[in-house]
Every structure is written in C-alpha cells, then in structure tokens.
C-alpha cells in the first residue's frame, strides 16, 4: 500500500515461557529488586491519576520511591475512571458457578477476538482476585448480600457472575480508594502532586525516557521535570471522535508525544463502540452518556418488527416486537459482547427499524423485570442510572423503555508495551487504557477497571523496580541538558504557533468535523473506499486547522481554548494513523469491522493466517512503518466467536 | 428560547471581577446548561472576545469538576443535579440567569467561573483513608460487613467533592464534605483502627484550610447533588468528641 512501509517484526522479549499458570510468578522472582535504602534516591514520574496512574503512584510511593504525579484536572480524584459504572471482574468464584482464573483468562482472550497475548491476559486474571481484597481493605463500599458477603452480577461476554460492583458507581468507588491511598502518600511527602498540569512532551536522553515537559494550566508556566523512569497512565483516545463517552478533557497528547519520540503505537484502529448510550439530541451535543451495560442483565433490547413504526412503544403488542439479540443469539441473548450488540443495533437501524429522533435508537425495556422483581428491586439496582436517564432525556424509564444507541467508549489500542508494560523507549512505561496490551480487539465489560488496577497496584511496581535495578547507573541530569532544552523549546514554539494563527474558525468546530469523518468512516463499520476518503479528508482538514484556527488570549495563564487546540492538533495525526491501521487490517475482528470481511450471516470474519499479529506503528514524520508482533495461542485455540 | 445571561468575568486572582451581560438566542431545551455555555463561547470566540472559563469534565454528574452558582443556587434549581446534568428545559424563554463561581474563602477564584478546590484534597490527605498498603490486604471475605452498614457507607461515599456544600453554606464550611468521608469509613470494620485519629486530622485540616465552622444551617445538604445527608455531620461531631476525650487516653480506652 502507498500509505505505510513494512518494517522488521517486533517481539516481546520479556514474555516468559513455561506453563502459563507459573509464568508471572516465575517472572516476578527473576526480576531484579531495588534495595529499600536506594529507592528514595530514585524518582518516577506518573502522568495521569485514574485507576492505573493513581494506584501506581500510591504503590510506588509506599515502596519508597520519590513520585511526581501529574493530572490535567483540578484534583487527582476527577480522572475519568470515576465515570465507570458497572463493575470490576475478578475470578473469586464466590458464586460457585464454575468460575476460575482459567475461565476468566479464557473468556477475556475469546472476548478479545484472539488478538491479545495469552501471557498478559493470564496474569490479569491471576491478580484480579488480589484487587478485590485490596479494595475491600481500603474501604471501598462494594454491594453486599444480607449475610455481609460481597455480591456479584453478570456482565456481557461471560456466563458466570464474577462482576463486583458498587451500585452504578463502581469506577468512582474504586478510584476514590486509589485516590485516598495516593493522598495518604501526598500527605506523607512521598508524592509531589501536580494537578492542573498537562504533559506536552517527553524528554529522551541517551535512548531512555528521563523526563517530561509540562504546562501549568493555571499560570501557563512551562517546566521540565526530570526522573529515572516515566509512567504514562493518560487514558484512551476515544475523543478523536469528538462525541464519545469520555470526559471532555480526555486526550491522546501524552501518548502521541511519546509516539513521536519513538514509542510504537499498537492497534490504533481497535475502538470499542458501547451499545448502551443515550442517543444524540441535537447539533449542540458535546458528549455522550453511557448507560451501564449491567442494564442488559434486566433490560430487554427490541425494535418494532415493521419499518417506520411510529407508535408509542407501549402500544406495540408483544408479537410485533423484535427482541433481536434474543432471537439471533439465543444462548447469550441480551448479554452478548459489546461489539456484537453495537453492530446488531446499527443493523436494525440501517434496516429502518430504529426508534426515536432520526431513527437512531433501539429500546431497552425494563417492563418484564419490573413485573417480575418489582419496582423496588429495580430501583435498588439501577436507581441512579434511571435518574440520570430521566434528567438527560426528560423521559421516565420506569414508564417508557429507554432509547439507546451505540457510542465510542473505549480504545483497546494504545502504546505498544512488552510483558513488563515497557514501551519501545526504555524507561517509558505505559499502563491502563493508554497501553494496548490485554483486551485484544474487544474489551469485555468490567475489565477496564480490572486492568487499570492490575497494572497500577500489582504489575508495574514490580517491573519498574526491575528496570531501575537493571538499567545501570543513572547519570544525574537536569533541565539544562540539551535534550531537555530542545523538548521545552519545541513545546514553547508550538504554543506560540497556535496562538499566532488567529484565523476564523474555533477549535471545537474543527474537532466536531474531525469526529464526523471518523464516525462515518472509521466507526462501527469500515471499508477500503471509506477509509481512503477519510484519510484525504483528515489531511485537508488538518491543513485548514493550521491556517484557520482561532485561539484567543495568550499562553500566560488559564486558557482553555489553547489547551483544546493542542489536543485537537494531536488528534488529527492520530486519526490518520487509525485509518491507515484500519485500512491495512483486511479482516474483521472485535471492534474492527470491515464491510468486505463478514460471514454470510453478517458476523465478523477474522483472517488468522494473515492477521494474527499486533500492528505496532513507528512514527517517522512521513509514512509510518509497520512492525508486526506475531500472536501465538497455546491454550485458547482461535475459533470463530459464537454467542449463539 | 432566548435568554439573558449575566456572567461573572474575572481575569485572574488579582482582578476584581464584574458581572457581564450576554444575550443568547435559539437555546434548545434539550441542551445541557454547559452546552448552552459552549454555544455562547463559540460565539464569543468568533466575535473576538475571550470565552468564559468554567470547569467541567465528565459531563455526566460524577467527576465533580463543574461548579457553577446559577441564580444564587449551587448547581442551579434542580435538586440532586450537577450543573452539567441540568438541562435548559428547566428554564423558560425570556429568563435572566446569573452565573457565578463558588464563593468561599477556602476556594479562591482562578479565572471567571473557575475556583481552586485544593483544600478538599488536603482534608483527605490528613486522614480520609484507610491505611492498607498494596499487597497487605486479607482475603476479601474474611471480614463480613452488615449490608445496612455497607449501604450506608456507600451513601456517604457517593460524595463527588464538587464543593456545592461549601458554596451554599453562609459560613463557607466544608463540614458536609468532611463528614461524608468520616461517615463512610467509620461505618466499616476496616475503618475502625484509625477512626479517632482520622476525625481529628481531617477536622484540623478543614479548619486550617480556611473553611468556616458549621452552625447547623443545613444549606449544604439541600444543595448537595448527591444527597449526602446532614446527619453525617452529627456523626462526625460524636466521633470528634470521643476522639478529643481519647486524645490523652491510653490504648484501648
């Protein structure tokens, strides 16, 4: 193809071998340790304070390292992990329903459509049980049974009840647990917290990550912060679509700046479109709101059988409704994985059977559950979600079915990391949603919280120690090092450039237009023609951005337009790489559905012979270079996923 | 609908600040309050005027970042609703709407509608946690927690740290915020060992940060978008009293 060049294959040289159950334990033993007295001489920067970054910063500080933590929000407690609703998976098997570490491992590899690494996923399943113990000890108020023991519920893509939850606010409660552990370390002087700071560049010295350039969003001051290792926990890039369930501030800048400095970006096209979000209400829409997938436990998804049926949902008799998930997927029903549920919703809407404004919605109906369990039981389980729905739409979901439609929610792709969560730049570690590692082409519900905390609490603290102990002596360098000065100068010039354009279009108008291109051509269904068109359109729009964007004010103080402009500029570059990745992957898998590659009944058609690899992209400034990491499956043999 | 907005504009901490009037047309009732401000800002930018700075992030009522005083009410007129979840259908054509930042000594204004709430983090750092270093936890089921205690702990833990309680309080007190965390942790068996040192540490940090004292007015609970009950402050006061009695005491007292 004309858009990229092929490079050498890449291998995960840290990947352990031997029986899969013993790999992590043996690897942990083989890793080097840092003497407690030496830890306080070592500094680690952690960018982002969500579940991954917050838990990592707290844990590293507990172990004795000097930690510098950064977030763009006004407090570390506000990272977007806080918005996760449904729950967190763990292989505790408290239900005695056949769950085990191996089953969680199996479900996650299968759910990811065989595009993740077995070793990583198994480790994730192993530490899942420790996460629950850790969070309970911190005082996370999980839902409990009358006997005082923890309650669990089921979630998409699994037939066991392994999801722990705290009403519809599990992410909030887990994040506050990590935040409180972090605040404790801040209070003890072990973490230097820098809220309202944004990372704008990575400093690489002698091939190793040694610092970052940050902007104080309140004073506008640019500073260079040095360290012995840098951890990015800066989240996903769903906001490239403008409309997504991400918080407004979520961005790819930290990851993208690292990518431009040499960190490979893996599988950027793997995007999760969540099936249960509140539909768009108009052009003013600034973001989309998720309704937790847990609602699919009790809600039944349907559309009218007839096209263009305008009747009120309550007037449509039972036999004129199509409960299409239950019809097509009888064994998983409404609990099929997210990618499948989203595409099925798109299909029925494309057939003209969608409901609500513009026909872009399907019903999620709780009438049966309310009849069976009573309104009180439904209130107890989902009360806050129902209230949120009513506030946004003005409709009462106890009386009329919810209207839902898919929306961009999570990005499985991210910076490439090895088994130690280290990127292709030594000393640069990437955790949580910002890396690509554990979910393959599709993430199962309640697995993001699990991965963020697994990385931050239990994996990274070990692997960073191994790096720090084994990397040899660290030359003491400060912000006057030529590489650091160059990085800082680049940041200052870019800010001046954005301020100097003074054109006639707002940042948001560009972002919205970019989002439309991406949703149209790189969303739920992709095709070669559409992706090629998108790449052309993105390039044209990006040129226009650099000529016509208007950013008022200066760089000397709080300037929210300037913040947005920098983020959107990086989204333009990422968007193009996403389309190239989607174009080169001539198969359908998980969240990546190519129109040209589907089975006769419309399911995703993988091509394991050609595409059972991780696509790791190298930045060159011109055409990106593709490095392939082959995936091998010893324990879970690739089959076509079937939830029928 | 057409509205008149009167918005607090303040260039920075040193600026005195003033209310500025902006008419706005064609507001859809389906817009959120913040989307209405987005529309205003787009128009301001195109007319060469700096947009209004305001804090927001998740826009689904959970991150606690948005912080607007709307017609003198923290988060506006709808009960149990953050400003980001407030929709314009709550207003009528022709309304004049005043929009101001949180006003409290402990929350200095940064710019326009943006304030600094770092004082809340300091309260948490002074004891709003259970000490449980990573890896030290016992098996989760080793300590059962009665469901009513777990549920009540959750109710208090639902606090989003937005600061509406402080903005609504005539004394600028942060007691509801502090009491919510105290209540959550003191209802759980895991929170007992640090129960009394926690309450003293947090209350001291609260006072040092410049928050006012609580005089049981109750505006905080009325303004709270998450319904944190006022009786959490009673619980805090009981624990505080016991803690001061124990301060000189011996272990086990």
Strand and helix map with partners:
The complex is a heterodimer of chains A (644) and B (253).
Chain A (H helix, E strand, L loop, with lengths): L4 E2 L16 H8 L5 H4 L3 E5 L3 H13 L2 E5 L17 E2 L11 H11 L6 H20 L14 E2 L9 E2 L5 H18 L3 E4 L2 E9 L2 E9 L5 E5 L2 E4 L20 H8 L4 E2 L4 E7 L22 E5 L16 E2 L1 H5 L9 H13 L11 E4 L1 H7 L1 H19 L8 E10 L2 E2 L12 E3 L17 H23 L11 H20 L5 H16 L5 H21 L11 H25 L23 H4 L1 E6 L6 E6 L14
Parallel strand pairs in A: 1-21, 2-3, 2-11, 3-7, 11-19
Antiparallel strand pairs in A: 4-6, 5-6, 8-9, 9-10, 12-18, 12-20, 13-17, 14-15, 14-16, 16-17, 20-21
Helix pairs in contact in A: 3-6, 3-12, 4-5, 5-12, 10-11, 14-15, 14-16, 15-16
Chain B lengths: L2 E7 L8 E7 L8 H14 L21 E3 L2 E2 L21 E6 L7 E3 L2 E2 L2 H8 L21 H11 L6 H5 L6 H12 L8 H14 L10 H5 L7 H16 L7
Parallel strand pairs in B: 1-5
Antiparallel strand pairs in B: 1-2, 3-4, 3-5, 6-7
What report would you give on this structure?
The complex is a heterodimer of chains A (644) and B (253). With 644 residues, chain A is α+β, with helices and mostly antiparallel strands. The radius of gyration of chain A is 24 Å and the shape is globular. In chain A, the strands form five sheets. A five-stranded mixed beta sheet of chain A has the order 1-21-20-12-18. Chain A has a five-stranded parallel beta sheet with strand order 7-3-2-11-19. In chain A, helix 3 links the parallel strand 2 and strand 3. Among the domains of chain A are: 274-409, Flavocytochrome C3, Chain A, domain 1 (Alpha-Beta Complex); 484-613, Methane Monooxygenase Hydroxylase, Chain G, domain 1 (Up-down Bundle), CATH 1.20.58. The mean pLDDT of chain A is 95. The relative contact order of chain A is 0.17. In chain A, 36% of the residues lie in helices and 15% in strands. With 253 residues, chain B is α+β, with helices and mostly antiparallel strands. Chain B has two domains: 3-111, Beta-grasp domain (Ubiquitin-like (UB roll), Roll), CATH 3.10.20.30; 117-246, Fumarate Reductase Iron-sulfur Protein, Chain B, domain 2 (Orthogonal Bundle), CATH 1.10.1060. Chain B has eight helices and seven strands; from the N terminus they run E-E-H-E-E-E-E-E-H-H-H-H-H-H-H. Chain B has helices at 33-46, 118-125, 147-157, 164-168, 175-186, 195-208, 219-223, 231-246, and strands at 3-9, 18-24, 68-70, 73-74, 96-101, 109-111, 114-115. In chain B, strand 6 and strand 7 form a beta hairpin. In chain B, helix 3 packs antiparallel against helix 5. Chain B is elongated. The mean pLDDT of chain B is 96. Chains A and B meet through helix 3, helix 5, helix 6, helix 11 and helix 12 of A and helix 1, helix 2 and helix 3 of B.
């Amino acid at each position: 193809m004309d858009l990229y060049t092929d490079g050498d294959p890449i291998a995960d040289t840290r990947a352990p071998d031997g029986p899969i159950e013993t790999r992590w334990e043996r690897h942990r033993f083989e890793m080097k340790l840092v003497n407690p007295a030496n830890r306080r001489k070592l500094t680690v920067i952690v960018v982002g304070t969500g579940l991954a970054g917050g838990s990592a910063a707290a844990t590293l500080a507990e172990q004795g390292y000097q930690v510098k933590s950064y977030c763009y929000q006004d407090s570390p407690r506000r990272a977007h992990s806080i918005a996760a609703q449904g729950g967190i998976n763990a292989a505790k098997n408290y239900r005695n329903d056949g769950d085990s570490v191996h089953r969680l491992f199996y479900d996650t590899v299968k759910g990811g459509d065989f595009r993740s690494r077995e070793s990583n996923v198994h480790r994730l399943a192993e530490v899942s049980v420790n996460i629950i113990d850790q969070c309970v000890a911190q005082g996370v108020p999980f839902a409990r049974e009358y006997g005082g023991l923890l309650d669990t519920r089921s979630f998409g893509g699994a037939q066991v009840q392994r999801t722990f939850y705290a009403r519809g606010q599990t992410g909030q409660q887990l994040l506050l647990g990590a935040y409180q552990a972090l605040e404790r370390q801040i209070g003890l002087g072990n973490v230097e917290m820098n809220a309202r700071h944004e990372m704008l560049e990575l400093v690489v010295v002698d091939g190793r990550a040694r610092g970052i350039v940050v902007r104080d969003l309140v004073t506008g001051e640019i500073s260079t912060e040095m360290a012995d290792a840098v951890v990015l926990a800066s989240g996903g890039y769903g906001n490239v679509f403008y409309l997504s369930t991400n918080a407004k501030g979520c961005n790819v800048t930290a990851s993208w700046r690292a990518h431009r400095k040499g960190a490979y970006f893996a599988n950027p096209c793997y995007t999760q479109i969540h099936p249960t979000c509140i539909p768009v209400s108009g052009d003013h829409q600034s973001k989309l709101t998720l309704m937790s997938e847990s609602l699919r436990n009790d809600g039944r998804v349907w559309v009218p059988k007839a096209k263009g049926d305008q009747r009120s949902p309550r007037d449509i008799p039972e036999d004129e409704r199509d409960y299409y998930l239950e019809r097509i997927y009888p064994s998983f029903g409404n609990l099929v994985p997210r990618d499948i549920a989203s595409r099925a919703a798109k299909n029925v809407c494309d057939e003209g059977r969608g409901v609500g404004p513009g026909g872009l919605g399907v019903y999620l109906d709780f009438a049966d559950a309310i009849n069976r369990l009573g309104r009180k039981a439904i209130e107890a389980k989902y009360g806050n979600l129902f209230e949120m729905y009513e506030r946004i739409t003005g409709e009462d979901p106890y009386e009329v079915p919810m209207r839902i439609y898919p929306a961009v929610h999570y990005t499985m792709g991210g910076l490439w990391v090895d088994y130690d969560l280290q990127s292709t730049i030594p000393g640069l570690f990437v955790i949580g949603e910002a890396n690509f590692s554990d979910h393959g082409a599709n993430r199962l519900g309640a697995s993001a919280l699990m991965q963020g905390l697994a990385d931050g609490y239990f994996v990274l603290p070990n692997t960073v120690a191994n790096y720090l102990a084994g990397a040899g002596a660290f030359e003491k360098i400060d912000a006057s090092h030529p590489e650091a000065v160059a990085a800082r100068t680049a940041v200052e010039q870019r800010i001046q450039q954005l301020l100097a354009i003074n054109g006639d279009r707002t940042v948001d108008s560009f972002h919205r237009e970019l989002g439309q291109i991406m949703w149209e051509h790189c969303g739920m269904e992709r095709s070669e023609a559409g992706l090629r068109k998108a790449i052309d359109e993105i390039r044209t729009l990006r040129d226009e951005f650099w000529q016509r964007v208007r950013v008022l004010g200066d760089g000397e103080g709080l300037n929210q337009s300037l913040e947005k402009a920098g983020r959107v500029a990086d989204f333009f570059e990422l968007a193009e790489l996403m389309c190239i990745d989607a174009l080169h992957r001539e198969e359908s898998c998980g969240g990546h559905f190519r129109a040209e590659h589907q089975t006769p009944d419309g399911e995703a058609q993988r091509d394991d012979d050609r595409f059972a690899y991780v696509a790791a992209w190298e930045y060159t400034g011109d055409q990106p270079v593709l490095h392939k990491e082959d995936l091998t499956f010893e324990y879970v043999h690739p089959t076509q996923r079937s939830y029928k | 609908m057409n509205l008149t907005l009167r918005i607090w504009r303040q260039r920075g901490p040193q600026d005195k600040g003033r209310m500025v009037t902006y008419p706005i047309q064609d507001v859809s009732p389906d817009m959120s309050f913040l989307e209405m401000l987005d529309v205003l800002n787009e128009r301001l930018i195109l007319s060469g005027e700096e947009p209004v700075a305001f804090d927001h992030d998740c826009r689904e009522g959970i991150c606690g970042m948005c912080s607007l005083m709307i017609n003198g009410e923290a988060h506006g007129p709808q009960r149990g609703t953050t400003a980001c979840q407030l929709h314009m259908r709550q207003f009528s054509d022709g309304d004049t709407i005043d929009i101001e930042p949180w006003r409290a000594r402990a929350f200095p204004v940064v710019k326009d509608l943006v304030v600094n709430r770092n004082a809340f983090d300091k309260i948490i750092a002074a004891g709003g946690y259970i000490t449980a270093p990573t890896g030290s936890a016992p098996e989760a089921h080793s300590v059962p927690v009665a469901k009513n205690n777990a549920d009540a702990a959750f109710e208090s833990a639902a606090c989003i740290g937005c600061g509406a309680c402080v903005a609504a309080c005539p004394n600028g007190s942060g007691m509801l915020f502090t009491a919510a965390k105290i209540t959550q942790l003191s209802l759980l068996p895991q929170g007992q060992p640090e129960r009394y040192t926690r309450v003293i540490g947090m209350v001291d940090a609260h006072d040092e940060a410049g928050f006012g004292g609580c005089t049981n007015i109750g505006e905080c609970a009325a303004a709270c978008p998450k319904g944190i009950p006022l009786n959490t402050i009673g619980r805090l006061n009981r624990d505080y009293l016991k803690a001061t009695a124990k301060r000189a005491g011996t272990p086990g007292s």
